[in-house]
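Sequence only, no structure available. Ideas?
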Amino acid sequence: MPSEPTLLLHHPGPRPAFYRVAEHLWGAGCNVDSDGDSRTADDEQWTELTLILRDSSQQRLDIDPLSLAPLVLLIRASQAGLGERAAHFIQSVAGGTLQAHIKDR
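Reply:
I predicted one. Tokens follow.
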């Protein structure tokens, strides 16, 4: 994945179902490839999520736990605006604090 800006979401509560994240980014009925650790489609406790818009391999979102206790999610995307939109949406549902993540080079 290209070196795009990343965000950290500290201490989020229950997250939106993974498909709601995809619909927020690309609209209802979007054609995505997804992977993650959701146990069911409506699971709100996921900590890993990858979404790739099938119509455009250029649009990809990856969310991984940087820490589980306390929970800190690392949010990366193929495009800065995509990651920011996803992070703000998840925060609007789950709460928590967003922070820019500066990677060591």
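The beta strands are 6-10, 32-36, 49-53, 60-68, 71-77, 97-101.
Hope that gets you unstuck.
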